[in-house]
Write a structure and sequence with these properties.
The complex is a heterodimer of chains A (114) and B (116). With 114 residues, chain A is mostly beta strands. Chain A contains no helices and eleven strands. Helix content of chain A is 0%, strand content 54%. The radius of gyration of chain A is 14 Å and the shape is globular. Chain A starts with a strand and ends with a strand. The model of chain A has no long low-confidence stretch (mean pLDDT 91). Chain B has 116 residues and is mainly beta. Chain B is built from no helices and eleven strands. In chain B, a hairpin with a 5-residue loop joins β5 and β6 (57-58). Chain B is globular. Classes of the chains: A mainly beta (114), B mainly beta (116). The interface between A and B is medium-sized, with 23 and 26 residues.
Chain lengths: 114, 116
Amino acid sequence: GQQLNQSPQSMFIQEGEDVSMNCTSSSIFNTWLWYKQDPGEGPVLLIALYKAGELTSNGRLTAQFGITRKDSFLNISASIPSDVGIYFCAGATEISGNTGKLIFGQGTTLQVKP
Amino acid sequence: GAVVSQHPSRVICKSGTSVKIECRSLDFQATTMFWYRQFPKQSLMLMATSNEGSKATYEQGVEKDKFLINHASLTLSTLTVTSAHPEDSSFYICSARAKGTHYGYTFGSGTRLTVV
């Protein structure tokens, strides 16, 4: 079945540093999504990507949909303590105009030292 | 926009009882809803996909008679964990999406189920 490999598994960085994480897949997706999850909460959508090559920003966050449609990265610039959490990539494939199910990466746990 | 409300946020039940979790789309019509299960320090695992007015599609290994899903309206889906056992204790999360939109998949805030 489809699998997403997300790396790194965890990161411990200093406040102000930039962060980069990525996801790769053995199969093609036509939607890539990046989520952040705080403890005891559901994932919150950060960035959605719908076209190969698309580069999208949301404040200090930037994500790109790989040209091959098999990968995506998320960058966080100038990290702050509230960036702490678990970041998940997720991919979906639309099938005949119907909603495809989301496949999640394993998550990247980010810790920021003030 | 695109808010999904999930209730309850926490529930503790006795082994052998059933528990119902509700997932509502507050400001859009959710033609498709998804139910996930998440164990501590793990990723979200899709349990089933439900389309309004039709039977849910369960992922391999998920018992449909144990995890009953009802998507009776465009704004409400329910997950009932029947005859719960301690191994069913987990974090259950729903998500919803409107057909034909690129809103992305909006998630509820999750339900922490503890079976004692």
